[in-house]
Design goal:
The protein is an alpha/beta fold. It is built from 7 helices and 10 strands. The strands form 2 sheets. Strands 1-10-9-6-2-3-5 form a 7-stranded parallel β-sheet, covered by helices on one side. The longest helix has 18 residues. Bound molecules: 2-amino-2-deoxy-6-O-phosphono-alpha-D-glucopyranose (GLP). 2-amino-2-deoxy-6-O-phosphono-alpha-D-glucopyranose (GLP) binds next to helix 5. Catalyzes the reversible isomerization-deamination of glucosamine 6-phosphate (GlcN6P) to form fructose 6-phosphate (Fru6P) and ammonium ion. It catalyses: alpha-D-glucosamine 6-phosphate + H2O = beta-D-fructose 6-phosphate + NH4(+). One of its GO terms (cellular component) is cytoplasm.
């Protein structure tokens, strides 16, 4: 695990974007695993700006997103499909046929989970998986207690995750109660993982995941078992980490 300290959110975003651009330029058909939430917004902005100024091409890139709410249509402003189009896909010239998210409107969600898992395999697996970190240690929508062996599945969102995400909705009651998410084993199959963490409110959970043995109570602690993880975190997020020798 490599931990890179960024000065602040903007610096974290620029470093993360550079990391992603290297993959995009370095592989003939890269598969990027993408995340939503507040954390990667700055990274996506840097990718948009880079595409404008340096013409980085995305015609050869494929993307699979971590998760999607159940019951939100793709045109719903709160769906992750809408988020990805708005913040990234519409601006970088990636063919829409190369961008995949779980379908939260599928009539048969179990079949949808199997389809998504098979799709990732058909693409040859994820080369670089971008992750944010939930306040309770969730990755994707894998809440505490999710088995490390889990594949893409339907999850019942916890009250704390629904409250944390309510800022994007009109009210807490309009936040969906379920989502489809890549499972922990799906995420762990990625060849490389890039975890982004920003802000003092994430300092406690980041310090925990770095100091704990992997256990299912803190989903992100599983990353300690992956052999190719890079964490880019800003100074505030790293403020509670005692073992400084591991930080670059
Ligand atoms: C959400 C998403 C996660 C995200 C996390 C943190 O629930 N499903 O993929 O990483 O919460 O969100 P934020 O970056 O807004 O703190």
């Amino acid at each position: 695990m490599k931990i890179i300290e960024a000065e602040h959110y903007q610096d974290m975003s620029e470093k993360a974007a550079r990391f992603i651009i290297e993959k995009v330029n370095g592989l003939s058909a890269p598969v990027l695993g993408l995340a939503t939430g507040g954390t990667p917004l700055g990274t996506y902005k840097c990718l948009r700006e880079d595409h404008l100024s340096h013409k980085t091409a995305y015609q050869h890139v494929y993307t699979v997103n971590l998760d999607e709410y159940v019951g939100l249509a793709p045109y719903d402003e709160n769906s992750y499909t809408f988020y990805m189009k708005k913040h990234l896909f519409h601006h970088i010239g990636i063919p829409s046929s190369h961008t995949y998210l779980p379908n939260g409107m599928a009539a048969d969600l179990t079949a949808e989970c199997e389809r998504y898992e098979a799709l990732i395999e058909r693409l040859g697996g994820v080369d670089l998986q971008l992750l944010g970190l939930g306040l309770n240690g969730h990755i994707g929508f894998n809440e505490p207690g999710t088995p490390f062996s889990s594949k893409t599945h339907v999850v019942e969102l916890t009250e704390s995750t629904r409250k944390a995400n309510a800022r994007y909705f009109d009210s807490l009651s309009s936040v969906p109660t379920k989502a489809v998410t890549m499972g922990i084993s799906t995420i762990m199959k990625s060849k490389q993982i890039l975890l982004l963490v920003s802000g003092a409110n994430k300092a406690g959970i980041l310090a925990r995941l770095l100091s704990e043995e992997p256990h299912e109570g803190t989903p992100a602690s599983v990353l300690n078992m992956h052999e190719n993880v890079v964490i880019i975190a800003d100074r505030d997020a790293l403020s509670a980490v005692k073992e400084r020798s591991m930080i670059f």
